[in-house]
Amino acid sequence: MTTTRVAQIEVRDPGRFDEVVGEVAVASPDEIDRIVREADAAAAAWARAGVDARAEALLSAARDFDAVDDALAELLTRENGSVLAVSQREVSLVPHLLRMAVDLGLGALAEPAVEDATVSLRRRPYGVVACIVPWNAPVVLALQKVGPALIAGNTVIVKPSPNAPLAVTRILERIAAHLPAGVLSVVNGGGEVGSALVVHPAVRKVSFTGGEAVARQIMVLAADSFTRVHFELGGNDPAIVLDDADVPAAAEAIVSHAFRRSGQVCYAIKRVYVPRRRLDDFADAAFAAMDRFVVGHGLDPDATMGPVNNAAQFERVRRLHDGLRERGVRVETGGVRLDPAGWDRGWYVQPSLVRGADPRDEVVTTEQFGPILPIVAYDQEADAVAHANGTEYGLCSSVWSSDLDRARGIAEQLEAGITFINEHALSPAGRRALPFGGVKRSGIGWEGASAGIDEYLQFHGIQVAEAAR
Ligand code: NAD
């Protein structure tokens, strides 16, 4: 008898390397093929079932997550490093995101797009959609794709990141139990599993959230069969503080938006532009806010900032620090170190800021995706706008001012998917109404709002010859 060894991914706690949090099996090429074929076979019936039946199934899944499940949040913290409160919030969004997708989908699909005597226009799903997601907020980022793709009538296969596959796999399997077989599946593994999905001839669309380099590889792979792509990529979000801003309040809020999840958020604030004469006031207030972070293991109730997720991320931040030090740039480091003796057992980094950073420095021009924030002085607002736009990134941005009209005037000039005024995070109203996505190299396509449903629909028009009626 021959036995086939199934490769496993061992997931270790980024805050306690010696602890194995769990394992997932890497899908083999045969298994990927089988799962895609099952999704393809389920697609016609799921599409024909109609939006009301799909809504009912998704609402049943949403109800399954109404009760707080701290075990899932703890699992998420132990695999991706975020502090428990952040993971609890992430898990609590599952039923909310499913319900929002249902609501938006019912609206988008309620009526035929056009229906008259000679022409009718329908919106149809693509068929099988592959969703490839990263590790930083794996549950939310997967759910933002899965709900809209399913309510639109597609069948879905999700490939989580090997750096945080456990909680999202469990959640998706629980959702799948409310749906017909083959409608929602998960495959685990690294880039090779993602690539196998992209090139599978039955996969009609790939929705990817992650970095630019992988997106480029996916685009090349998808070109062969013209498989549609939807990309949510990195950002280097600027915050522009105007000279009339309430500096202490702005500094406090900007720091909290820059350092959430240890800076590992695609639309975290990654650079701040401050009028030169207010630079020190701003930097002092920002330092004071940053210094209050307590860095430790995500399950430690005193921790307000966890470790970064993985070695590559840790090295990237260290390289930025080394480069700044070599150029003689002062980096101000703050925060309380919880359990410093345990720091070499995890990817711990203290938060830091660079006061008066050079606008051309790498820490300003690239996405750090870690807890380091450059503050750049500007002389003219036009310079701040030019710097903010002078990049290939275009995810989000923010303007901080006590004069909303003035702030709007600057906001209108910024190149971004969303520009916030006096905040830098989506509110419930924003999440419902504003499509999230990047311009330039920060993405292709939109997630959330009704545009996020359209992303999973294509048109089918029927026209009848006048004479044949
Ligand atoms: P990544 O690009 O390395 O990986 C993302 C996913 O792609 C993982 O599941 C990975 O296994 C898979 N993958 C890797 N190689 C592949 C290939 N050749 N074919 C198919 N799939 C492949 O990204 P990451 O390090 O996991 O996440 C960090 C990046 O994600 C940052 O740049 C961040 O800004 C971005 N991000 C963007 C958003 C957004 O909504 N715009 C949200 C979160 C993160």
Compact overview of the structure:
By secondary structure, the chain is α/β, with parallel strands linked by helices.
In words, what does this structure look like?
- The chain is an alpha/beta fold and 469 residues long.
- It has 2 domains: 8-233 and 445-462, Aldehyde Dehydrogenase, Chain A, domain 1 (3-Layer(aba) Sandwich), CATH 3.40.605; 237-428, Aldehyde Dehydrogenase, Chain A, domain 2 (3-Layer(aba) Sandwich), CATH 3.40.309.10.
- 41% of the residues lie in helices and 21% in strands.
- The strands form 5 sheets. The protein has a 7-stranded mixed sheet with strand order 13-15-16-11-10-17-18.
- Helix 5 (138-151) links the parallel strand 5 and strand 6 (155-159).
- The structure holds nicotinamide-adenine-dinucleotide (NAD).
